[in-house]
Structure formats: C-alpha cells, structure tokens
Amino acid sequence: MSALRRFVVVVPLAFVGMLALAACSAEEPIEVDDVSEDELILRRGSVDHAAIVEATTMMLVDGLATVAPPLDPSLDPYNREDPFRITAAPYRSAFAKNLGRFDDYDRKIDWTASQTSAWVTRMATGNYQVIDTSKPCDFASPHTYLEIERAALTGKPHATCGGRMPNEDALDVTVNFLIRGPAATEQDPGAIRDGVFAATKPALSSFPYLAEMNGL
Ligand SMILES: [Ca+2]
C-alpha cells in the first residue's frame, strides 16, 4: 500500500440534516407542475448526497428541463445510489454535457479530454470527498475543498487535508473548478466570485460547530 493510500480516508457524506431537507425531493407521488420547491420542504423523501457540492443540482440536472432542479427526475435515482458504487450508465452523459457547458461559460476550454473523462467517470461512479489526515487543515482560513481532487486531475501532489470545512466558500471553489478548470482556484487573480464570501455567522471551531441562528 502506498504512503498516500495509508493516509487517505474516503468519506461518503450521505447525511440527514436540516440543510439537506432544503434539497430533498419527495418520494411521494406528486404533480410536479403544481408543486413549488417550497412546498417540498419537510416532506418525507430522499436527501441529496452531501459530498461534492452541487453534484446534482448543477451537474446532473437536464438543462432543458422545465422544472426546478430539486424536482428534476434524474436526482432521486442518483441520490438513492450507494455513493461508493454508483451505477454509472444513467448519469455519465448528463455529467459530461454539463461539465462541457460550464467549461464553455468563459468561452475558453480549460478541461483537457483526459481530465473531463476522469471527472465524469468519478462523478458517475462515486460521490464522496477524499481526505488525507496526514496533511494540514486550517480551520480559520480553509482552502481544502477539492484540493486533493484537483491535484489528482492536474498530476500534482496535494498539500492539504482536503475535504470541506464548515466555513469554506465551497460554491466559489465549485464554479472556478467547473468553469476555469481543475488547475484554477477561487484565490486566483480574476477568479470568479459570487459576491458572498462568508456566512453571516461562521461555524464554530469545536463540536458541534454550529453557529447561532440568524436573528438571535
Ligand atoms: Ca472554461
């Protein structure tokens, strides 16, 4: 076993929590055209895998669908899959199409064919984050999310523990990864930012890490 493999912990984060409820999709029969996203909240149903950010709502949805992403018919089957052993065939084309679409947003092709193939296969067969507990994690200034995955795609050694810490701006990481390619980061000059850089109340650095609710 290589040194890397000894330290790497693979984490599937299929979890149930309050945030996941907002992304849930109902198993109960519904008339999609008559139900808003808000009406789905707190229904009994399946929850999204919570590993790679926006794996479903940005990367798996059919861009031609007329329903909101939580109601897209491809999401429930993906979320019901074992995150380590996803049946690739039904999802591969959607991941490939959407990755190409995001890369094209800046009218510059940043993903090589081999990187595209590797990431499409990765997402179509497994939805998890890779963590290396031998590497540093900086809770106060977290820049770990997708660092190990990006290093693997670009053929470089990773430098952080990877994974996603509670206060990381993971959506900015995601849009730069998808649009500017695996070599880019959200810290680059000219990086794409969504203008929201932090939670109004940051997560705490000790268990259970929860900040107080807004308004308290
Ligand atoms: Ca691009």
Description:
- The chain has 216 residues and is mainly alpha-helical.
- The protein has one domain (3-180).
- The chain has helices at residues 3-7, 18-22, 37-40, 75-80, 89-103, 113-125, 147-154, 170-180; strands at 8-11, 25-26, 45-46, 129-132.
- The chain has a two-stranded antiparallel sheet.
- The chain starts with a helix and ends in a 36-residue tail after the last helix.
- Residues 1-9 and 11-30 have low confidence and may be disordered.
- Bound molecules: calcium ion.
- Calcium ion binds next to helix 8.
What's a concise summary of this model?
The chain has 8 helices and 4 strands. It is mainly alpha-helical and 216 residues long.
Spell out the blueprint of helices and strands.
Layout: H1 3-7, E1 8-11, H2 18-22, E2 25-26, H3 37-40, E3 45-46, H4 75-80, H5 89-103, H6 113-125, E4 129-132, H7 147-154, H8 170-180
Antiparallel strand pairs: 1-4, 2-3
Helix pairs in contact: 5-6, 5-8
Calcium ion is lined by residues 103, 106, 108, 110, 179-180.
